[in-house]
Structures are given as structure tokens and as C-alpha cells.
Amino acid sequence: MAEHFRDDSTAAIAVRIDAEHPAGMLIDPLQPQLRLTDLGATRGDGVFETMYAVEGLVRKFPAHISRLHRSAEILQIGIPPAESWSAAVELGISEFATRGEVPAHLSVKLVATRGVDGEPASEDPRFSGTYWILLTPVPESSLQRRGTPISVLLLDRGYTSDVHERAPWLVLGAKTLSYAVNMAALRYAEAHGAQDVIFHSSDGQLLEGPTSTVLLMTRTAEGTARLVTPLLESGILPGTTQGAIFAAAGRAGWELGYGPLQREDLFNAEHIWLASSVRLLAPVESVDGHSIAVSSELTAQLAAFLEDDLPVRHPESS
Amino acid sequence: MAEHFRDDSTAAIAVRIDAEHPAGMLIDPLQPQLRLTDLGATRGDGVFETMYAVEGLVRKFPAHISRLHRSAEILQIGIPPAESWSAAVELGISEFATRGEVPAHLSVKLVATRGVDGEPASEDPRFSGTYWILLTPVPESSLQRRGTPISVLLLDRGYTSDVHERAPWLVLGAKTLSYAVNMAALRYAEAHGAQDVIFHSSDGQLLEGPTSTVLLMTRTAEGTARLVTPLLESGILPGTTQGAIFAAAGRAGWELGYGPLQREDLFNAEHIWLASSVRLLAPVESVDGHSIAVSSELTAQLAAFLEDDLPVRHPESS
């Protein structure tokens, strides 16, 4: 994921949201924009979402906004209403049009931090923190890599699968800016010849990737194909891409399942994918060096499910 | 700890370090200084230290710099040499003198992030990231609160005490910017009538506070007083304040001990303190509602140990 800004970062557009600009204000992403005392920068104390916009239309906007608000609620961070984020995204996309052309593929990152320590940005709690959107063209190289099979390592996330129920201070289930462990796990995988990671709990339950949701294709005892994903109750993020695929697959009559899943379920699965909003579906061809079958037909089928329910209007009107 | 910037943040002085300014350059902490794509802000992907300077002299500078470098090594972040940090701190302190007076009590925060995603700040790996120092007068209210007994909650950190040995990607032992869990634990304590937290591992070993090291005073079978702190091997940070106290206490003939410590050891201890660089020693008067004896004499004695080995010169010459 680190490559997302590499090829084309000068073309990014940024929008800030504050109490005076609840519908957003364009800011320059090449200039410094954050104070050194912003708790997002000093404590990883904030939340984010990364959305995907195709031809200027954001995919799964309601699911992302809903998860952003849930993350903010878990962290007790004030957060602008959905209309603000929607209008700000719209402003960013229009600015691309004004400058020439809206890129066909945009990564749209929404960030909310607790703001500057001890200095709320506004008395209105919905605008008390620091909020921005960064719209970045998805590099051609990332688009071309889509669907390329990847090797993953299975790594211990260190937590038991039941800890988040009794330890809300671990803020599991919130997509926070405190991603140092996720980034370190990806570096560890790269250093060991793999491209990505699937975390398991210390009691052996499958969890999620550092920036993705795990999907398995299994067979029932009767031989029926079944799409399965780990249990949310284990403290993982609800995957918006997984959610969209499951909704469409369900409508298409597929059998669906939710964990608990164990490490062995990976090796018994027919196929495995990592699902995320911009990379979409990454078929897994090996886990800890064990080969897993890949099927480009099924990968294409799951990708087609994601086209099943696309927005037809700009997010502001949804 | 959140109050550190509250009373007096406009008086803060900031210094940036980069390849062109390896000895530091003054920057305005009231102006935005960080890009939206800085991985410190978007991924909590950086490391920090908070030091304490009295009358312009930084305490435990070598211990802090050594821990900062160790944290950066665990995260594989390029980091300027000790001389750079030392010169930059010196520059900040001189600037206070130039503006009028060096505050008697300064909090000196050192921060190193991985820098802007995909755009190393320098080809020199020692300056590839983003680096700054923030010097903030310690508010009078914080100084007055020192030594005031506090109530703490004992909270599960979610990890087993042996996980960091087999899971280096959890970056335990590094003081990273990904502090969302630490901050959430402190909010949880405040919401439940306590002022601080002691974490234990999921297998019941005592670990550390979100921003402090735990010290216990116990008695040996023979009745000799003994100062004890949890085991570093459990994946906690090496406490610089605890280290300084132990060194001086050892010279004074005290008996010293290192864990493993269990939850019950807290309740069997004669006294408990949380040690940190700026707050110094916070005597614990209750754990999960159970009273713990406090002794202002012993708190004063431990504080005196911290005076035992003060710097007599500016950090650049140490």
C-alpha cells in the first residue's frame, strides 16, 4: 500500500473541514498543514478511512462514513456529520475537474484526529478536532498489479480473540491512526519474501490483514461453494469491501459464512483473497510457504460482485 | 499528561532537524509544520521521547537518546545522531534565553517519524524522515500536583508476557507514536474515577503505565526494604526515571529487584509509585479501589535519588 503516493503524489488534492468550512476548503497537500502538537501526529490519536472513487464516483460511501463515525465513537473523537465529508469529497473531485480532468481511479482518504492538545478547534464537538480528505490518483502500477497472486505470512496479533469484549481501552474495532504494528507486520513480511500478512489471535483464530479483510472459499459437506470471513466479534474491523461482496454474492444465491475460523481453515480452503477498498481483491497463492490454489475466474467473479451496486450519483446526493 | 500543553502552549519553542540543518533550525510551533502525508500523522509511524530540563539542563539525556535510537531501530526508521539532537535541544534552550529567560522547568519532546510516504527527506538514511523537538514550559499546575497520591486502575494490555519475544512485528519495547491504546486507557481510568493505569499482561504479569514505569517497595523475608520493577523481558519500555532511581538507590545500598511481578504483588507491596520523566514520582494510593499506603518521606527519598546524578553541563558537551 505504501506505493499509493509514490508515482503521482504531486497530483493529489486536499480538502480541510472545520467549523467555518463545514463543506470543506481546498488546501495544498504539498505545504505543511498540521501543527506539531496535533494529537494525530504525536499520539496516533485519530481515525481514518480509505475509499475508492471510479470516474469521480465514490464506492461504498455510506459504509465508509458509518465505519468512520463508529471508529470516532470508540475513540471519543468529535467528528463532522456525513454531509460535511460528502460535500468535502465532492469539492475535491470538482477541483480535479476544474484543473483539467477527474482521474478515473482515485484513492480518497478521510482522516479525523483529536486535534491540537488542549486547544479544541471549535466549541462545537462535531468540529473539535482536525479533519482532512486527501484525494490521490491511484498509480498505474497499482492498477496493473491488481489481481496478481500474493504470498502471505500468518502472524500472531498478540491478542486473544475474546479480549476486546472485556478490554474496550484496546479500541479494537476502531480504524485508528495508530498503525505502527500493521506497518511493522508488512515490513516483516517483505523482509521474509512475502507481500502481505494475515493476523491470527494468540488463541489461533483468524483475524484480518493489516490493511485488508480475509475471504475464504470453502465447500460444505454437500460440496456447495461457500464464501467465509472471520468473525467480527474477534475484534477486527468490519470490512466494507467484504460487506459489498457478501451482499452481492448473497443476492446471487451464494452460501455465506462467518467464522470463527482457525489457522487450519486457511490450509483447507479452496481459495483465499485479501479484500480492500483500493486494491480490491488480492488472490493468495501461498500462506507461510504452503501453496494455495488461485482461480482468476473466481477473482473476476468476486470483482464483478463489487460492480453490482455502484453509486450512480455523487456522494452528496446519496 | 494531556495538561502539559494546556496552560502555556504559546510559549513553546520548536526546532526541526534535517539534512541541511543537522544541528537544528528554529520553527514556529503555532504554524502548521507537517505534511498531511507524513507517516507520523497517517500511521502513527514514528518514535518519541519526553525529557525534562531543569534550569536549562536536560536530565538523563544519554538514556533518552539511547532509547530513542533503540525505538527507531525496532521500527527501522532513519534517525539523526545524538549530536544532532543535542545541538537542537541546545538551540531551543538558547532561544528561550534570547527571548528573555529559560523557564526553570521544561518538557523537551523529541519526535522522529518515517517522513512523507514515498518521499525520503534525504538520501542520507540518518535524515530520511521528519524530526523535531518541542520545548514547552511545564505548567505551574503540573508542578504543584507532583507527589499528589493518585488512584489507578489495573487494566489488561491484551498481550501475554512472552509474546514480544516471538512476535517482533508487535514492536513492543519501542516508544512509538501509535499511542491510541495508551490514551484510551487513560480516558477509561478518568471515566471510572481514577487518574492513571497500570497495565498487566493477559497472563497476569505487571507491565507498565501508559506513560510511566511501575515501582514497588516490598520487604524481603528478612524484613529488608526492596525496590522492585517489572521485568523488561515482558515487552515493556526501559524506564529512564526508574533506571536513574535504581542506579542511585543501588549506590545508597538499597536492595533492588526486577520482576516478574504478578497482580497480587501490587496488593502485597508496602508502597507503589508511577515514575516518569516530567511528572517524576506519583505515589499510588489505591489500585482498583484497594487502598495502598503512601509515604511522603519515601517519595521524597526517591525524588532525591533523581537529584543524585544531575548533568552539570549542557547536553552538547556530555
Automatic annotation (TrEMBL), chains A, B:
Pfam families found in the cross-reference section: Aminotran_4
GO molecular function, one term: transaminase activity
Gene Ontology CC annotation, any one: cytosol
InterPro entries xref list: Aminotrans_IV (IPR001544), Aminotransferase-like (IPR036038), BCAT-like_C (IPR043132), BCAT-like_N (IPR043131), Class-IV_PLP-Dep_Aminotrnsfr (IPR050571)
Keywords in alphabetical order: Aminotransferase, Transferase
Biological process, per Gene Ontology: carboxylic acid biosynthetic process
Signal peptide (from-to): none
Family affiliation: Belongs to the class-IV pyridoxal-phosphate-dependent aminotransferase family.
Protein name in UniProt: Aminotransferase class IV
Species the sequence originates in: Candidatus Nesterenkonia stercoripullorum
